[in-house]
From TrEMBL, chains A, B:
Source organism of the structure: Meiothermus granaticius NBRC 107808
Protein name: Aminopeptidase YpdF
SUPFAM superfamilies: Creatinase/aminopeptidase
GO molecular-function term, one example from the UniProt record: aminopeptidase activity
Family annotation (Gene3D superfamilies): Creatinase/methionine aminopeptidase superfamily (3.90.230.10)
Pfam families: Peptidase_M24 (PF00557)
Enzyme Commission designation: 3.4.11.-
Lineage: Bacteria, Thermotogati, Deinococcota, Deinococci, Thermales
Keywords: Aminopeptidase, Hydrolase, Protease
Peptidase M24 domain ranges (all copies): 154-367
């Protein structure tokens, strides 16, 4: 397996390759435990308290750090240390890169490309009054989204771990369990492995018995016969996430899966197929969304109120191109083009009143000729036998 | 004990009291698991994915949230839900507060008051082109620093837990242990209690055998006779942190604590005494720092390269007034005035070449008449008997 050091080195080489001549990428951060800089996490595991600057151009990687932070910054970053003031150092180090354009981590559209705080932005403006700043979002979206081999291997491992946990859950579910108990069952699996849930202990897994899921997560609601069991779950393993939705049904005594469910499931599955067929290098995010969305509405189901897919990586919502509709709240994200080596979720569903949510989510990586499944697809609504 | 709900309610009431008539405090955040908003954490445990806005004025607390995020926002926030676009809703909700001034969470000086990303700032400017924005830092510094009774109780409990763990460590340390082994010993204590280290698993505790500590933390260096053992450790318990430094000595066979150590320790302790005597409501941060710093240099030791103390709370470095020198890199933080109910660390030390670091750190709360110790003070360099 790849070590963290290998992974950071691989990503740094990718970043230098994707930067253009004359571009300087400047990451400005501090107290990165309380306030992580999502772009820095791609390149370094450093723990930083004081103001710290990472300067990357095609041929040079330098950092400016406070004395006590400097030792936590790994090679190949060449670290300059300050005690009282870094202004002169910052100016001279920026000049040493002779940049024509300085890219900063801000983006109205993408939280993962928006790691620069407004206060640090004001500090940079004051320290470098002549500098021409621009958003790093386009470059960073590409860097973050196109996964290196080490990153793909880690995501695949996180997918397999989540699948194993979900299989165990489906074998152990009991009538009368609350959603919170099912959640706790998966949390125990995570603790056994020393892992974390992909999107926090409070909301992951998101378990819904006989109802529409919400980001508020699992509740005291108890499992009864005649309910759909919906799980939205992912594992964060060695820094990378998986994100899967599965759906099960607990039948009433002597009954099978209701016809409404067996009618809805193939539509949901087909909508994901359509999205996967559409997902290839060069296509725009909203074009992938549109085919999946139309499959649902053409079948007479209501339109779902979210995007069909998002990038998956260090974060569950890893930024970059969104496979989403052109709604104002998504900004420019659905306009991006899909690229090779990007990893996406494909997720959507149909709410059946009185039964629950028929929702699926699979994880795929984009190859030159199209999508490759990272997850083992769900083939049918699994009926849990008492 | 106070519940989280009580604690959020107490802090929200404090915020409304400290806001002036006509002021609207506007928190804008999203994906707050990957990118936490340190100010929002004071008021709500909500987990948010989409763009979310919290609007607080003296008599009104409203929030605007995406459909799936809304259920995780607790009362008394009145939540308005959006699906596709929030611009009109944001405008009307801001207008409903009739603000003369809108305060945003940005600050060049204080990372904990700098939770607004530059990208979200640009979005606010675009959505509210007429609005007059200002920094919330002054208000927020006061709010964050002045701890409510529930917050003080939690910090005190975190201090006591860290003290108990350090006592256990000092009783179990072995010659030949590496710094990393000592770290692992404390990590086991944390895991047993289901707690987290105050500033992350990688850097907390920071253990140094016979050397100057750095933020890079513990190493493979092994404990030998004739070394000072320095620990910098804190516990994060129910959301609040402690932060303590202790120093021990492992004697050479047949020898006691070297004279250099017994000479330095009282100077370090006296410098902390002086800072504590100076620490009372109304004094400026740099004035507290100056008396401690002068105690060290007057005794002929080199000046330490960091601040004498910082606020302690949800974060180890909790922002607000810094008990630090007027160095450019500290910006305006040392100019702040100390206020009642603030909780500070007092920390400093002296490096003794060939022996290690004689460093102490205590935690105090500011009362009307001066500092009250939250930690049991270290009285002497504890000599660890083989």
């Amino acid at each position: 397996m790849f070590s963290d050091t290998d992974l950071y080195a691989e990503k740094l080489a990718q970043a230098q390759q994707e930067l253009k001549e004359g571009e300087l990428w400047l990451i400005a951060t501090r107290e990165n435990l309380e306030h992580p800089e999502p772009a820095l996490s791609l390149l370094s595991g450093a723990h930083l308290t004081w103001d710290t600057f990472f300067l990357l151009s095609r041929h040079k990687a330098t950092a400016i750090a406070g004395r006590f932070d400097a030792p936590s910054i790994e090679a190949p970053w060449q670290v300059q240390i300050y005690d009282e003031d870094y202004t002169a150092l910052l100016r001279s180090e920026v000049a040493a890169h002779s940049p024509q354009r300085i890219l900063l981590d801000y983006s109205p559209n993408n939280p993962m490309m928006d790691g620069l705080s407004h206060g640090m932005y004001l500090k940079l403006k004051a320290a470098l009054p002549e500098a021409e700043f621009g958003s790093a979002a386009e470059f960073l979206g590409g860097l973050r989204s196109a996964k290196t081999p080490a990153e793909q291997a880690r995501i695949k491992a996180a997918v397999e771990m989540a699948e194993a946990h979900l299989e165990e859950l489906s074998a152990h579910l009991h009538l009368g369990w609350s959603e919170l108990q099912a959640m706790e069952y998966l949390h125990e699996r995570l603790r056994e492995e020393g892992l974390e849930p992909a999107w926090g202990w409070n909301g992951c897994p998101n378990i819904s018995f006989g109802r529409m899921p919400s980001h508020a997560g699992a509740t005291e609601k108890r499992l009864e016969p005649g309910m759909l069991i919906h799980t939205d779950y992912g594992v964060r393993m060695r820094g990378y996430c998986s994100d899967l939705q599965r759906v099960y049904y607990w039948p009433r005594p002597g009954e099978g899966v209701p016809e409404e469910v067996t009618r809805a499931f193939p539509v949901v599955r087909r909508a994901i197929d359509r999205a996967a067929e559409q997902l290839r290098p060069g296509v725009k995010g909203y074009e992938v969304d549109a085919v999946a969305r139309a499959t649902i509405t053409d079948a007479g189901y209501p339109e779902y109120k979210y995007a069909t897919g998002h990038n998956l990586g260090r974060a569950t919502h890893d930024g970059g191109t969104l496979l989403g509709p052109r709604w104002p709240r998504y900004g420019q994200s659905p306009e991006g083009r899909v690229r090779e080596d990007e990893v996406y979720t494909l997720e959507l569903g149909v709410m059946l009143e009185g039964l629950g949510y028929v929702g699926l989510e699979e994880d795929v990586v984009v190859r030159p000729n199209g999508a490759e499944w990272l997850s083992r697809r769900q083939e049918a609504v699994y009926c849990l036998e008492p």
